[in-house]
Amino acid sequence: MAHITVGVEYGIHSLLWLVDSGKPLSSRDLADLQGISHSFLAKIFPKLEKAGIVRASEGARGGYLLALPPEEISFLEIVDAIEGRKPLFDCQEIRGRCALFDQSPPRWATRGLCSVHAVMLRAEKAMRDTLAGQSLADLGQAVAEKAPSGFSSDVQAWIGNRLEGRLAKSPTAPAGEEDPS
User: Fold this and answer.
1) Using an 8 Å Cβ cutoff, are 38 and 28 in contact?
2) How far apart are CA 67 and CA 61, in angstroms?
3) pLDDT level of residue 21 (50, 70, 90 thresholds)
4) What is the dihedral of CA 24, 28, 33, 35, to 10 degrees?
5) Distance (Å, rounded) from C-alpha 2 to C-alpha 88?
6) Which class for 33: exposed (0-12), middle (13-18), buried (19 or more C-beta within 10 A)?
7) Rounded to an integer, what distance in angstroms lies between the CA atom of residue 28 and that of residue 42?
8) Which of 70, 92, 129, 173 sits CB 3.0–4.6 Å from 137 for a disulfide?
């Protein structure tokens, strides 16, 4: 059974920081802000860019920005961009392997969709519908309601300091490229 990996969690958390950043952030900035793996996050952002969720800007002030308003970015789009569209369940057609069938299952045993697979397909549809109905803006609002009033200012100050540090070290770093800082 396939599942959603940590890459999706890293990606969604990182995109959340871009909702109100106002400035491009490199994958290294986003990783450092969250205390997560630089190299792992650097592999996620090209997938998000290819899917049209983020866009890269170049130069020392470069990095990633949302390519769409957060209201137009669903969790499903993020999951599919990072994981690829893959089924939740991979039916192995076990129903035809019963020892009583002596390797020749009767038609009634294998007719139609496997009942186990049918349940899993309904579960997958429910999951995909839920993910499609939840936007990055919805998450941003929920987080904003939880955070103390000064947190957003603290984040903006951190981003500003980080950008100043990047400008001082490398005046022409390409978009998304990892600074050694």
Assistant:
1) yes
2) 17
3) confident
4) 160
5) 5
6) middle
7) 7
8) 70
Tens of pLDDT along 71-127? 999 999 999 999 998 888 888 999 999 999 998 999 999 999 999 999 999 999 999
Measured from the Cβ of residue 24, the count of other Cβ atoms closer than 10 Å reads 22
Helix (H) or strand (E) holding 56: strand 54-57
DSSP 120-154: HHHHHHHHHHHHHT-BHHHHHHHHHHHS-TTHHHH
Give whole-number Cα distances, 144 to 134, 138, 139, 140, in Å.
16, 10, 9, 6
Instruction: Locate all alpha helices (DSSP H) within the chain, ordered by sequence.
Output: 6-19, 27-34, 38-50, 75-83, 107-110, 115-132, 136-146, 151-169
Bridge-based pairing of strands 54-57 and 63-66 is: antiparallel
129-159 burial: b if 16+ Cβ within 10 Å, else e: eebeebbbeebbeebeeeeeeeeeeeeeeeb
Q: Could you tell me which residues come within 8 angstroms of residue 38 by beta carbon, excluding any fewer than 6 positions away?
A: 27, 28, 31, 32, 178
Chain centroid to Cα 33, Å, comes to 17
Alpha-carbon span 74 to 12, nearest angstrom: 10
